[in-house]
Amino acid sequence: MATTKDENYQSFKLSGVIKKVLYKNEETKYIIAVLENNQKVCGVYFDTDIEKLTGEEVILSGNWTTHKKYGVQFEFDTLELKEAEMFFFLTKIVKGIGKKFAHELLEKYDEPQLVEILNEKPEELLQFKGIKEKKLKTIVASWQKFKHLRELGSFLAQFGVTSNLITKIYSAFGEVDNLIEKIKTNPYMLINIKGIGFKRADEIAKSLGIDPRSEFRIMACLNYNLQEYCNNNGNSSIDKFHLYKLLDDSLRFSNEEILYEESLSKMLVQEDIFVTKENRYALSMLYYAEKNVLDFFQRRKDEKNKRIIASFEDYLVRKQKSLGFDLSTEQKKAVELINDGHKTLFLIGYAGTGKSTSSRAILELLEEICSYDDIMTIALSGIASQRISDTTGYNSATIQSLLMKHKEKDFFPYKVILLDEASMVNSVTFYQIVSKIADDTVFIIVGDDGQLPAIGAGNILADAIKHELAPICKLTKIYRQNEQQAIALIANDIRKGEVPKYNEEYEDFKFVNVSIENYYSQKNSISQNEFLDLRGENSTYILNNILNISASYIQDYYDLIKKKEINSALTLFQVITPMKGGLLGVENLNMQLQKLFNHTKAKAYATKLYEYKITDKVIHIKNENMKAQTMSMYKSGSSDFLEKRVFNGQLGLIIKLDFEENKCIVLYPNDDMVVFYDFDTIHSLLSLAYCLTIHKTQGMEYENALIPMSFSHYIMHNTKLLYTAITRAKKMCFIVGEEEAFVSACKKLEITIRESVINDILGTL
């Protein structure tokens, strides 16, 4: 390691080999790492996954700081690979050249000589030991394929863009002619590459001498801020003056409204954005999505099919006998609306109000006029899709799999489509669904508006209810088999901001009180450090209780795996927590629960965060096309593979770790799919799933669920989160933790208000 002072910039330079990444924030890109001499370094690093640089020598510029917890650290402003960009290119991109051979080449030739040899005299490489004709062909073919990437790398490396990020840029724009010239003209075209963003593109633009008041810069910043605002806040439109404030912060301007107006006007002409009402704007994608969803409902509002059953009351009497139970007045209304010929229906109900029962009755009525195979139920997640199929008896699919299956068709080939868990569906996905629903297809939307809203922009379910975009049947009566069943009652009290009777004896709900005695009194009477120690000690007690309860499910988990009932094993028991970090956060709980559940002695594969073992329960965390087989293909040892879309939130089981091929093999039982992960992509595509965040469990259902409750999670506590978490449990729900934190969360009423295109168009917010 070496340290030097840079007199021009009044900062230090530090070089060393990255030994280990200690901390990484996926959102802010802030990292803490340790070098081989155990010196800690910290800073913001956007270029690539920092863990890919483990073992690489880096050069950092920045300053020394002292952290109250971590001590002396080097806080860097820039981090660059010390190895020549050519070395990285040869070893990571060109097939057939390893590190040893790359060193030999760069020792003998300088870069221009080596480029000339690879382009014009590649046979010279045959003089090197181990290079035969076959290997040379591989090297030359790979060099020719990627030499434009090499040119791009040479250009971008001067701006501190790392080689990993350069390969991403090439993958995105590789087919673009004169790419380097286009980047020189408008470096903001790089913004959509993950790891760049506006700030980094702006730094490159500054280095290239782009005018800070350039239209490219302002329009790029407009677009970027609109997307970030919508993605992070769930809104699909924004007030103009709020947008200007975001632009001021990003561009470091003030009082530049005229400049902004000019760029906005141009984007409006190009239809990159739209005016939704006076002084409000939306990105074109979100505008079109919500405008078309609104048009879909308004077009159908006054259109009706023929009445299905003339003597409806007689039909109900017969149907209730075959169902084995009587429908409530609310449930009868839902069935009657469809019988009267309505093409669209919102069936809205809170936990335990009989949405699935009503759905089944509606679908059975529709089967009077269409075949069983003409009816399709859909949901966002695989588990939710399977559940609606199990409860109604009709075919099911995930939304994305249905869209993929029928992507070449104008419309879905079904006469009835029922969408379950509609609160989870954002604007763009909802539009994708309705754009493929034919005019004569009956569309039933089932949802619970008490749950968390969709991840992504929009709040279609809430907007549709608010503006009565279609007939709505609201189910309010809670059903339970006996007085000892309380999950639905407790959840609905919390939804209303009321503290439920949580300390009574129930067969499906248990509150395990692990509280700090006289919490508020102690908080006010002892020092902050003493109180933090007290809270840490209590969190350990909560953790021990969680592990104790979890242990009672281990035998059942492995019994189900042995019986090949993998889906049942994966949904047997779930720990659900609001946050990722801390003693009671997802990451630590996953590690502790893995130690409890998985005692395999077989070799594990370690990433920076987790070790992965055979029979681990895992979750896929990013929508991605993956190399896959069906289970029968896998069992037969087939060498053929399918390309399958694996969706964020799918639960699976690791069935093999192949250290010869560097593959992790995961079974997704809901989809009869065996997926092959390269070891070096696991950290970005998979996570352990013994514990999940509440947001990750939306639309899921588990036989048994356990929720930690601590003031350390206070920032995340509210009625919507707690209601969503508790209603994931089907048979038993445990809440383990601090009584005061639970009571406080029950009272923290969360009313989600999202700004949307639909609200703008219909004139209210």
- For the termini, the CA-CA separation is 58 Å
The secondary structure category is alpha/beta
Shape, per Cα inertia axes:
globular
Strand content: 15-25%
Overall pLDDT level: 88
What would you note in describing this structure?
- The protein is an alpha/beta fold.
- Helix content is 41%, strand content 21%.
- The chain has 29 helices and 29 strands.
- Helix 27 links the parallel strand 28 and strand 29 (729-737).
- Helix 21 (528-551) packs parallel to helix 24.
- Mean pLDDT is 88; it is low at 5-9.
Give the arrangement of secondary structure elements.
Blueprint lengths: L1 E5 L4 E14 L5 E6 L4 E5 L12 E11 L3 E11 L3 H8 L6 H10 L2 H10 L12 H25 L5 H11 L5 H7 L11 H12 L6 H19 L4 E2 H12 L5 H13 L3 E5 L2 E4 H18 L10 H12 L5 H11 L4 E6 L5 H12 L8 E5 L2 H11 L3 E3 H7 L10 E4 L7 H8 L7 E6 L12 H7 L5 E4 L11 H9 L13 E5 L5 H7 L2 H24 L2 H9 L3 H5 L2 E5 L8 H12 L7 E2 L4 E2 L4 E4 L3 E6 L1 H5 L6 E5 L4 E8 L4 E6 L4 E6 L3 H4 E3 L2 E3 L8 E8 L9 H8 L2 E9 L1 H9 L9 H6 L3
Parallel strand pairs: 4-6, 10-14, 10-15, 11-12, 11-13, 13-14, 16-29, 17-27, 17-28, 28-29
Antiparallel strand pairs: 1-2, 2-3, 2-5, 3-4, 5-6, 7-9, 8-9, 18-19, 20-23, 20-26, 21-22, 21-25, 23-24, 24-25
Helix pairs in contact: 4-5, 7-8, 8-9, 8-10, 11-17, 13-14, 19-27, 21-24
